[in-house]
Amino acid sequence: MKKEAQILSxxxxxxxGESETLWAQLRRxxxxxxxxxxxxxxxxxxxxxxxxxxxxxxxxxxxxxxxNRLQSPSAxxxxxxxxxxxxxxxxxxxxxxxxxxxxxxxxxVSLALGVALGMTAGFLGGKIDYIIMRFADxxxxxxxxxxxxxIMYTLGGGVVNIFLALALVGWASVARVVRxxxxxxxxxxxxxxxxxxxxxxxxxMLRHILPNCxxxxxxxxxxxxxxxxxxxxxxxxxxxxxxxxNSSWGLMVNMGRQFLYDAPWISLAPSVAIMLVVLSCNFLGxxxxxxxxxxxxxx
Length: 299
Prior knowledge:
Helix content: over 70%
Radius of gyration: 23 Å
Distance between the termini: 36 Å
Shape: elongated
Strand content: under 5%
Number of strands: 0
Oligomer: single chain
Largest sheet: none
């Protein structure tokens, strides 16, 4: 019993040392991977701009001014006005609230669902593993955007339905990753020692397996956000996503496509915003993966 407790304490100490090394690696990434750092700064600035939109712009995002419709960019309207005379920059800032929320919230929900199902399948195995993973295979057999479109056509447009649709189509890939890591981790010495000491399966999964899955989950989180944003933009562009009077970047692109020749800034501004967020999330995800993925670490 003492030997088993010693093995468990040594394993936990080793985990603590690895977490300290992890922070050192993150600091080294901040020094070496300037692109990942710049991407993180840009994402933070966009998030702050969305939160403080009422302070940053004097215009209303819903009420239009037909006398100033389709004005080109100027000192009064930095990104011009749309077909209803609304300031494009204002709608861009308010639209960032929905677009960024659609990127983060469904991703978090799908991560939580994928972690719960993947860890349960990998740790318990047997019929539970078979049922969960076959269901995940069915979900992965369909293109995610097509499946999200079916859900949106069934439930109707709206922000809440977008959250639900994107969360439902995103959990399967997370479950597969967590399951594979759980299968490898549950055979480790400290897990065997904890099991022999009578620690419950729930505590083992929560205290010993989940922390070791966090690096992969952080990378998945940063890489899945742009996918959710692009899906929302596509759904809103097709008219089954965010509905007026709300504003999102995808909806702005859709509303401005009929004025591409007369007022291209209406669609160009949200398109550039989508591109910057997607690239920033991908660059940040690549930087974190280089640090956190044990298969890519160099000696």
